[in-house]
């Protein structure tokens, strides 16, 4: 049974809605809101508590485009999670084509590489016990840059 979940990009869009809907299940005891912006994360946390009536949301600072941030976030998790929802990402503007210190584009780092690293780090630390799900929300809306309507 899944009792704890980490959702990346949880302060807005599908990530936030995923957190809200998961909170409807009483067996869920902890939802980590994986976000890169503390202010936006705290706002989402307060709104989710108000909307759901459940104080089960915890902010986990993480920028999946930044490998060091991913590693630090895994270290700060106090206990294992049952499920990971990899939602953070985007198509962004020109800045998404800038290179990271690792030599890959930001768009590749945030949409793929960061989540691969996150999953691997969680597994190495024995902090992911049951499920990992990738949610590609951009495809649901269409991606003009990729010719998707």
TrEMBL record:
Pfam family, one: adh_short
InterPro entries listed in its UniProt record: NAD(P)-bd_dom_sf, SDR_fam
Keywords: Oxidoreductase
Keyword Oxidoreductase: yes
Alphabetized Gene3D superfamilies for the sequence: NAD(P)-binding Rossmann-like Domain (3.40.50.720)
PANTHER family to which the protein is assigned, alphabetical: PHOSPHATIDYLINOSITOL-GLYCAN BIOSYNTHESIS CLASS F PROTEIN, PHOSPHATIDYLINOSITOL-GLYCAN BIOSYNTHESIS CLASS F PROTEIN-RELATED
Name of the protein: SDR family NAD(P)-dependent oxidoreductase
């Amino acid at each position: 049974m899944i009792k704890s979940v980490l959702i990346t990009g949880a302060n807005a869009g599908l990530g936030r809605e995923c957190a809200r809907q998961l909170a409807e299940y009483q067996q869920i005891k902890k939802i980590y809101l994986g976000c890169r912006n503390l202010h936006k994360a705290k706002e989402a946390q307060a709104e989710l508590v108000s909307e759901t009536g459940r104080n089960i949301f915890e902010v986990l600072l993480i920028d999946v485009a930044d490998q060091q941030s991913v590693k630090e976030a895994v270290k700060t998790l106090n206990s294992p999670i049952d499920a990971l929802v990899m939602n953070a990402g985007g198509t962004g503007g020109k800045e998404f084509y800038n290179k990271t210190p690792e030599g890959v584009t930001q768009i590749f780092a945030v949409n793929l590489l960061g989540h691969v690293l996150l999953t691997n780090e969680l597994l190495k630390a024995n902090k992911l016990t049951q499920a990992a799900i990738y949610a590609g929300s951009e495809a649901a809306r269409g991606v003009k840059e990729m010719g998707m309507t």
